[in-house]
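Thread: "does anyone have the structure for this chain?"

Original post by V.I.:
We have the sequence but no experimental structure in hand. Need at least a predicted one for the grant figures.
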Amino acid sequence: MNDVIKKIFNEVKQKDDDIFLASTIKTALNLVRQNPDVTNEIHSIISYTLEKGGMATIYAASEAFGQFADDLPDRILSLFINYLPKICHAREHSLWSIDKGLNSLFKKDSEIAISTLESLLISGRDSCKIKVLNTTTHTILKNKAILNHLIVRWFLSGNPALCSAIYEIISTASTAHENQLELEVLPDSLPQQDPNILIFLARKAIGFLFTRPVTATSIILSLIRLSDSKETKNELRNYIFEFLLMNYTGSVKEYLEKKSSEASDEVSKIIRQLLEHYETYIEQLKSIGDIPELHPSTIQQQEYMRKINREFTEAHKEAMKGSLVEQLFKKSVILYGNASIFHVKGKVSDTPNRMEVPMHQISVSTEFPRQLYFDPIGLDYRLRVFRAERIIKHEADY
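Reply from O.Q.:
Generated one for you, tokens below.
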């Protein structure tokens, strides 16, 4: 074995061919998987090869990580992990292999997988986003314990790449149930029971998950449960009311009504206060009466809806360009009628059979935040502040 390793190392030093160096990576990994006693020697070979090789070597390294991430000695695995940020800037095939390797790491050691993912997201902020790591994203989404841990860890870091990754992970939820994803901050994940940390996490949840109001509300409710201070509880309650309940009077109100009967007595009391405050606010709005200046004419309303329809149509056309749906299916424009008619040849007879498919109404509803209408600039500014702010580190390392 020692003679083989020396021969490989000499060849690597003498040759610059990228294809040869790529094959050396695979050969070295096969050797160390069969004989872990040569880990140090193989580590030197792979390290030297990675520094010397080109694109083919990078592909070989990404494939090796994707295939053997859960079956490598720790020292070899650490070498690949340290080299992943450079691999991440390669093409899509490398990212697919990295995604596969990360998914294996989450099954083997979630802490190593999280640290590796963090280094990738921070170093490759523009080229490596969490949304291109599909398998890893769904693995995290399915494991509530990991996702709850990442909420605290990444929000407290204040790093834009990590905080944005939280939103991207939650946005991959596709079903109606997952869009109402409930998360919570666990006491074990907090560095210390500091009211400032609880407020900071609430502001981050609002800043990055504002368009996922039920998820943001569930996080802040869990922070209320963890707080020992009445002042902190009231401040967290006000954040829910001002930014979430008042902007999303449908989904958030329904969620709070549901949780009021399920939560503990203390949290249930705060939820009832929120709902009572909401009802009082609505009554006060109605008591003002109609203000003509706030009611545009019918013509203005119709023109505004035509403008919105044009924007949606243009956005839809742009999204469909080059899409898989456009490549697989033929598009037909129906000018009038209430059914679509086409002819299909049968197995027995060559005579086409007339088929008729009735048309059905398809509707999609979206809840827009109320403040987006009367103070869009103010809302955008405050959310940007929440997303940008960080904890100043002094003696305590958060």
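V.I.: this helps a lot. The chain has a mean pLDDT of 85.
O.Q.: and The CA atoms of residues 115 and 128 lie 15 Å apart.
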